[in-house]
């Protein structure tokens, strides 16, 4: 027991601490809110006030930005500057607006590359790239900087833009307190440990508590069912307050998805009742706001009937022709279950209606394609879906009139404004990167005000834009990741569903999965239960980074800087596990080697002859393929307009007619084709394994008329008619007319000699040869795995420094760096410094930085007018989303020559990069250069986009990228004046309005 004096001393100390806390800046800051801050928010604030940097990892919507806002408060209270960074401009703009509302416009600036407002303000919101460029330029704006907030810092895992985050973290002065805000990641401690290593004292604050309870549901057939139930069959929360770990998958879902009987006939017992059949929800499903969604009545809030399907039938009342609600085992077109056919997902308008009945709107439905989002809007329009009342429509109309009045009337159709207005007035819209940013802003504002009830969005919406939704719907659990269609990871599922139920707006959130074919409730339950999101660095040295480092530091310090990256930190940690695996493989390989014996002879020698035979066969096969490629180039070069050809497979198959042959394309020729479906395709030698076969000719319309979709369809119909009677399989037709290069395996002397040696070997006649070779195979497989692990160990130890050395060797060869020092080139003690060309490269920030620098170095872009320079710059920054057809020809010989010169430079650069062991730079992509050229020459948007399917949003975003690179060229002696004129030509009309927004 403590003495009275000790108890008094403890009480006095607590009183003093309490008074200090009451007088602290954190206490003053918390008075902004009418609710108590969470423990993790207070912990973050105390760490900042104590002089530490912080890493705050918390679920989406938990309120981690409060810690970032306290850093703003603390900086202003101490007379310091604070930078607030975000990964994308939309987030920067949103945070800028929030800070202006809080602090006033005079105290907040905005820098996003294409926007510069009050850059000398005490609080400046910016994209991370802007801050990186400031650090490399040693900008005066860094003076007095006390805090940097990096919102969505887990974005450093992004392959293209993630490295910028690490550059900022590494180069930022250690006196600056860093506030890193991240979604919940499973390796937050590892990331925090790296931050401590490179930034000094850093508090790691992890909260896995979701502030708003999240319920999980599944739409099966026409029923909305809870995914998780307790032992009594009652629905339970999956995450957040009230979450129950002792839960199981709703047995009703398993029962429904296991049979093809109607729901009515399957339902049995009381466990796992459907959502609408459950009692005692304690108001969980009341809608937000004053409107009340009751049971389906067949009439909407605006007094008009809603919920009609395409045929005019009521979507909720079953088949209007009679029968039960479910219509027997074969469900009607609405998309339930079909006997023997598995499960078909519910139609999107019906999903919305079901959510509306259950009071689960507003909702975001994630559809992992732009076309799918637009298609969903069209389906709802055809179903005459209306989710708004007359008062809401008046509010929406006022917002539309305010924002869209500046769009020229001649551009309304190309922007799809009539359909957009109709859908928004009815309470739903799409949201994806292909939309005009202005339209996305309208959608975000209307959804935030509760006027839009449903948004069909791609996953880009999950980046952090504040769009409060009561429910999140996932139409599928598979998405295209750029390479293949892959299942959603637990981290992706968590990121998407985390948007359901926003703190301070909703009392709960709901995640809904629409069941489709091969639906697996257990797999969904596993996704919904695991919240893993590992953070993996995407850091790598780039040419621009190399010259910037060597302009500031000596070679040794530059290498050390790379070694401090999170990528190297993770690599070094992983080596420990790899070394343990290598020791295990060494022991296993030795055991297998002992078993590799044969009484008749040397078994490994016999196996070696087998390997030599395999290697020779592969060599002959490669030589045969090379001859096929040479023949293919020759055949493609000799094609003529109107030739009907059969394609042998590969990336192209079927029949097509030749529209044009461009023999000047590097690596070509390139053939422009029209297939039997009326689609234009390009064909290059690498697209097919062997030459196509010419089987006929077809008279074609004029080249310029093929821009019309109707003309292409008519031409395709004529092609199909000409092909009547041909073999349906074009590959068989090719084999009959233009087969592959004959194989030389049967006549190759070396191959025949090896086969003879194998047959004469003593082990060849061993009766246990097959068993012996199995042990050889195991030994070889283990040795191969061991060698692979050893290569990984060797590659990861100082891997970034080796990449940097290969890169600097290339830059020296190209003249961007030069060696300095008393020793001969290559000796220890040599230093590398940027040349005049290197200093120009230092100012170029692009994924193709070295290619752009080479084009400038060789004068490939000189002599162009402003529109021509804009078009060529377009090719330097564009990357096609898919396999586009051949680009339009720009009617300007100077532009054509510049593009051709850029392509030649790219080909030479790729060869050098490959020789130095560096990933080759992608060549220029002129797919939309003609559109930019027309726009820069003054044509309006509809005319600029004529004959192309480039979405307006992509066009505006691409123009921003073009302007950004042009701005980097304004300092160039030869191109500066033209670049400034090109910026003015591109930055006009809708593009200027969007940039200035």
Automatic annotation (TrEMBL):
SMART domains: DEXDc (SM00487), DSHCT (SM01142), HELICc (SM00490). It is an enzyme of class 3 (hydrolase). Residues 239-345, 721-748 are annotated as: Disordered. SUPFAM superfamilies: P-loop containing nucleoside triphosphate hydrolases. CDD domains: SF2_C_Ski2. It holds the Pfam family Helicase_C. One of its GO terms (molecular function) is ATP binding. Keywords: ATP-binding, Helicase, Hydrolase, Nucleotide-binding. Residues 242-255, 263-273, 305-319 have a biased composition (Basic and acidic residues). PROSITE patterns: HELICASE_ATP_BIND_1 (PS51192), HELICASE_CTER (PS51194). Residues 45-203 form the Helicase ATP-binding domain. The keyword Ligase does not apply. GO terms for cellular component: Ski complex. Gene3D superfamilies: 1.10.3380.30, P-loop containing nucleotide triphosphate hydrolases (3.40.50.300). GO terms for biological process: nuclear-transcribed mRNA catabolic process, 3'-5' exonucleolytic nonsense-mediated decay. InterPro entries: DEAD/DEAH_box_helicase_dom, Helicase_ATP-bd, Helicase_C-like, P-loop_NTPase, RNA-DNA_Helicase, SH3_HelY, Ski2/MTR4_C. Residues 350-550 form the Helicase C-terminal domain. This is ATP-dependent RNA helicase HelY. The lineage of its organism: Bacteria, Bacillati, Actinomycetota, Actinomycetes, Micrococcales.
């Amino acid at each position: 027991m403590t003495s009275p004096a000790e108890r008094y001393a403890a009480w006095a100390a607590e009183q003093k601490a309490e008074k200090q806390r009451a007088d602290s800046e954190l206490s003053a800051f918390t008075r902004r809110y009418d609710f108590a801050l969470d423990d993790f928010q207070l912990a973050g604030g105390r760490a900042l006030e104590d002089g530490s940097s912080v890493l705050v990892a918390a679920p989406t919507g938990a309120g981690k930005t409060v810690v970032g806002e306290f850093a703003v408060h603390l900086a202003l209270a101490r007379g310091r500057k604070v930078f607030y960074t975000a990964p994308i401009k939309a987030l920067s703009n949103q945070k800028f607006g929030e800070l202006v509302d809080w602090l006033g416009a005079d105290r907040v600036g905005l820098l996003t590359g294409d926007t510069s407002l009050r850059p000398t303000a005490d609080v400046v919101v910016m994209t991370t790239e802007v801050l990186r460029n400031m650090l490399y330029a040693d900008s005066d704006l860094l003076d007095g900087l006390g805090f940097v907030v990096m919102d969505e810092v887990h974005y450093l895992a992004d392959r293209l833009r993630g490295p910028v985050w690490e550059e900022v973290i590494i180069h930022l002065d250690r006196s600056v307190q860093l506030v890193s805000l991240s979604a919940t990641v499973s390796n937050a401690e590892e990331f925090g440990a790296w931050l401590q290593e490179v930034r000094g004292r850093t508090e790691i604050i992890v909260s896995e508590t979701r502030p708003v309870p999240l319920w999980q549901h599944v739409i099966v057939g026409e029923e909305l069912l809870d995914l998780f139930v307790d032992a009594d069959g009652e629905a339970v929360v999956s995450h957040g307050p009230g979450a129950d770990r002792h839960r199981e998958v709703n047995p009703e879902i398993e029962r429904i998805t296991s049979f093809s009987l109607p729901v009515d006939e399957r339902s049995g017992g009381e466990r796992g009742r459907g959502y609408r059949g459950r009692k005692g929800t304690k108001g969980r499903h009341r809608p937000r706001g004053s409107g009340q969604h009751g049971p389906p009545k067949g009439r909407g809030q605006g007094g008009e009937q809603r919920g009609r399907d395409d045929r005019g039938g009521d979507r909720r009342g079953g088949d209007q022709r009679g029968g039960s609600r479910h219509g027997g085992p074969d469900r009607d077109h609405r998309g339930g279950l079909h006997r023997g056919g598995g499960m078909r997902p519910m139609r999107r308008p019906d999903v919305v209606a079901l959510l509306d009945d259950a009071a689960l709107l507003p909702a975001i439905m994630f559809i992992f394609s732009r076309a799918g989002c637009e298609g969903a809007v069209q389906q709802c329009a055809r179903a005459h879906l209306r989710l708004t009342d007359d008062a809401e429509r008046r509010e929406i109309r006022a917002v539309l009139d305010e924002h869209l009045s500046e769009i020229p009337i001649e551009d309304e159709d190309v922007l799809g404004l009539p359909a957009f207005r109709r859908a928004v007035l009815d309470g739903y819209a799409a949201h994806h990167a292909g939309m005009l940013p202005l339209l996305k802003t309208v959608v975000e504002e209307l959804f935030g005000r509760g006027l839009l009830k449903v948004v069909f969005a791609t996953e880009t919406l999950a980046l952090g834009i504040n769009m409060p939704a009561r429910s999140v719907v996932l139409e599928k659990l598979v998405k295209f990741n750029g390479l293949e269609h892959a299942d959603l990871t637990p981290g992706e599922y968590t990121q998407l569903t985390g948007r359901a139920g926003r703190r301070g707006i909703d009392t709960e959130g709901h995640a809904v999965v629409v069941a489709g074919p091969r639906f697996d409730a257990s797999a969904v339950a596993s996704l919904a239960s695991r919240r893993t999101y590992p953070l993996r660095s995407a850091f790598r040295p780039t040419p621009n980074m190399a010259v910037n480092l060597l302009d500031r530091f000596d070679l040794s310090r530059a290498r050390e800087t790379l070694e401090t990256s999170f990528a190297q930190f993770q690599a070094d940690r992983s080596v420990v596990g790899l070394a343990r695996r290598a020791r295990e493989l060494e022991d296993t390989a030795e055991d297998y080697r002992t078993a590799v014996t044969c009484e008749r002879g040397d078994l490994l020698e016999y196996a070696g002859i087998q390997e030599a035979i395999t290697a020779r066969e592969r060599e002959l096969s490669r030589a045969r393929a090379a001859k096929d490629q040479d023949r293919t180039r020759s055949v493609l070069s000799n094609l003529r307009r109107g030739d009907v050809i059969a394609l042998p497979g590969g990336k192209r198959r079927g029949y097509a007619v030749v529209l044009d042959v461009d023999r000047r394309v590097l690596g070509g020729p390139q053939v422009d084709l029209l297939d039997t479906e009326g689609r234009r395709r390009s064909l290059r030698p690498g697209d097919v394994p062997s030459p196509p076969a010419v089987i006929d000719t077809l008279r074609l319309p004029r080249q310029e008329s093929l821009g019309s979709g109707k003309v292409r369809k008519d031409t395709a119909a004529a092609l199909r008619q000409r092909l009547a009677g041909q073999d349906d399989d074009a590959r068989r037709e090719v084999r009959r007319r233009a087969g592959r290069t004959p194989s030389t395996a049967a006549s190759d002397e070396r191959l025949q000699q090896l086969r003879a040696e194998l047959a004469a070997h003593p082990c060849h006649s061993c009766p246990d040869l097959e068993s012996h070779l199995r042990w050889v195979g195991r030994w070889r497989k283990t040795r191969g795995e061991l060698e692979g692990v050893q290569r990984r160990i060797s590659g990861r130890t100082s891997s970034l420094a080796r990449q940097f050395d290969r890169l600097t060797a290339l830059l020296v060869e190209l003249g961007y760096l030069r060696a300095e020092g008393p020793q001969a080139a290559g000796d220890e003690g040599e230093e590398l410094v940027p040349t005049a060309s290197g200093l120009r490269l230092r100012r170029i920030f692009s994924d193709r930085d070295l290619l752009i620098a080479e084009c400038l170095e060789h004068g490939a872009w000189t002599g162009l007018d402003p529109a021509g320079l804009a078009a060529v710059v377009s090719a330097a920054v564009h990357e096609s989303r898919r396999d586009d057809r051949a680009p339009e020809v720009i009617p300007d010989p100077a532009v054509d020559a510049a593009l051709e010169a850029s392509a030649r430079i790219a080909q030479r650069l790729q060869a050098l990069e490959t020789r130095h062991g560096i990933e080759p730079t992608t060549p220029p992509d002129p797919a939309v250069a003609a559109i930019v050229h027309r726009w820069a020459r003054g044509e309006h948007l509809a005319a600029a986009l004529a004959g192309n399917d480039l979405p307006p949003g992509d066009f505006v975003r691409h123009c921003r990228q073009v302007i950004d690179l042009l701005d980097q060229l304004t300092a160039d002696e030869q191109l500066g004046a033209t670049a400034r004129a090109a910026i003015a030509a591109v930055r006009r009309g809708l593009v200027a309005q969007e940039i200035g927004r």
